[in-house]
Amino acid sequence: MRLIAFSWAVTITVLFFLSGVASIRGSDTVAKRSSITSFTDNKSQASHVDDFLRYTSIFGGAKQKFLDIVKGRLEHSNFDFWKHAESLGKKMHTYTDSLLKDAASQVSSASGRIEDVKNTMHTLVSAAAHFEAAVIAHAKEGTTLEAISEDLDSAFAPILEELQKMFPSPDEATHHAERNRTIYTILAKVEDAIVRVGIKHGMNEEDLRKHIDQINIHVAKVVVLVGDLSEQHPILRDTMIFAVVTMLVPESWILKPLLRIFGFGPRGPIKGTPVSWAQRYFYGAAVRKGSWFSHLQRAGMTVVPPGTGKKVIGGVGAGVGIGLSFMRC
Fold this sequence. Notes:
- It is a single chain.
- With 329 residues, the protein is an all-alpha fold.
- It has two domains: 2-79 and 305-328, no CATH class; 89-299, no CATH class.
- Helix content is 73%, strand content 0%.
- InterPro entries: IFI6/IFI27-like_sf.
């Protein structure tokens, strides 16, 4: 059985490789791919698996199993959303602005609140930047923002566990008044956690609380706005969550762990994760699977010329992925 499985793995790998070679013959641009290429390669892998299995019947009823295995590995093993979002730089912001404009045009009655979300996020990022300057000026020598961010993640972990017990995921998004109460309950716990981390790194408690208060005011507003929009216009939910995530990137060292508590982060649909819980609690449902990848791919389309070098890498990767799945069955 293992010998047969290995034979299939080799056959599939060769087929994908030859298909990829044919598609880019004569191209000399492979070496010029940007960092986003690795991401688009992953997406093309899943696409090639779909195409290959659609036009063949050698796997019979096992088709869906192999698709799930390969796509699951591509989406959740080596994909770093934050790294790719940051690498896109201005392209990411341009794409997000376009996304919000489209949302406002589709739901004109929500255009004012969509603009409020955008403006509040800009103010929040500015407040986080002022906090960053204070950290750099007053923290212990040798302290890095990355170290503080990691400590915040650790400090928030027990809070997230406690919150999931205190506020079980409802069948639908919480309503405005309940959402407000919950947010401020959470922010009180978060503030104390940030203060503990800041003191550990040499910051003064009074200064810490001043900066955190400014940050929390805008965090609360963003969560309420996005929650209200999601409740009244569920079609906007995924767009608004994604937009908030991309806008926090400049100050992700603090905003990423902080806003993750309120569901602003990728991988929401994975059952049992804090982000999935928060998205269901505050916004009614988790962001659709695959949407984070799709958004980043569209945002970075102009970075990599279509069809350049993607099929060879994608073909080999997908073939090997399926082969490994066979071997482990």
